Amino acid sequence: MQFAPHHLAALSHVLRLGSFEAAAFALSVTPSAISQRIKTLEDQTGTALVLRGPPSTGTEAGLRIAKHAEDIGLLEAQLTRELSLDVGQNTARLKLAVNADSLATWFIKAMAAVEGVLFDLVIDDQDHSAEWLRRGEVSAAITAHDKPVTGCDAYPLGEQQYVATASPSYMRRWFSNGVTAKAISCAPCLVFDAKDALQRRWLEANIAPHLSPPTHFLPSSQGFVEAAVAGFGWGMNPLQLVTPLIDQGRLQPLVEQTELAVPLTWQVSRVMAPSLADVTRSVLNAAKCNLK
């Protein structure tokens, strides 16, 4: 089955921008033209592709076809480079799964070194980001798993170092007699979201197993750091983000020399690997300079 490029473009823009009107504006056509193109695709595939919003979102089939359109764009961009053709205004779009702490510490440097690509990032925990690859919804991902997802190539990146930190005032209030199992069971803890297991892993390795302190959920890497500085709770922060604050005395480790190392891996779809060679090279270079 072959899909018309302008039909694929309509679907991609609707799912990315969230409405038929926004897609029409971006493609310089009318909303009715977008609607007709989507209907033609749905008739061609025999299934619904778009869940009309707001916002408009994709069905499972719609997301797969939109990913197919993205892959075509990346392959065409590769061919354009190889033949030294004029790129014009056609810029390839790349959807990736990245964990929030990599984005906050080093991954932006990797993206900035790549030309001719528009990035579409999905933020997910490094222990779960491989699922996006398994579902075929992204072309590459940063994961905590070194075993390649089926159909993918895996490149070790190094280790992201985490340190359990809190403000001096928080330490005085909750741990005046030391960081004990009893004390930490009562002290408020910061957790990124329900997938975040770093705090639990640190507790099991350094304090005691099966502890369940009161928890604030705070899905922001920078907010995590600011909350710790404000005495809101303790949490596992990337060492790169908090080293200056530790040096300034605004944060301190709960227990010295108990850093938690999280190995990271860059996994990329093998089919798309040649088209993503520049991205992979940039990611590996940035990781080499920023991870341990």
From TrEMBL:
<dbReference type="InterPro" id="IPR050176">
    <property type="entry name" value="LTTR"/>
</dbReference>
<dbReference type="Pfam" id="PF03466">
    <property type="entry name" value="LysR_substrate"/>
</dbReference>
<keyword id="KW-0805">Transcription regulation</keyword>
<dbReference type="InterPro" id="IPR036390">
    <property type="entry name" value="WH_DNA-bd_sf"/>
</dbReference>
<keyword id="KW-0804">Transcription</keyword>
<dbReference type="InterPro" id="IPR005119">
    <property type="entry name" value="LysR_subst-bd"/>
</dbReference>
<keyword id="KW-0238">DNA-binding</keyword>
<dbReference type="InterPro" id="IPR036388">
    <property type="entry name" value="WH-like_DNA-bd_sf"/>
</dbReference>
<dbReference type="InterPro" id="IPR017685">
    <property type="entry name" value="ArgP"/>
</dbReference>
<protein>
    <submittedName>
        <fullName>LysR family transcriptional regulator ArgP</fullName>
    </submittedName>
</protein>
<feature type="domain" description="HTH lysR-type">
    <location>
        <begin position="1"/>
        <end position="59"/>
    </location>
</feature>
<comment type="similarity">
    <text>Belongs to the LysR transcriptional regulatory family.</text>
</comment>
<dbReference type="Pfam" id="PF00126">
    <property type="entry name" value="HTH_1"/>
</dbReference>
<dbReference type="InterPro" id="IPR000847">
    <property type="entry name" value="LysR_HTH_N"/>
</dbReference>
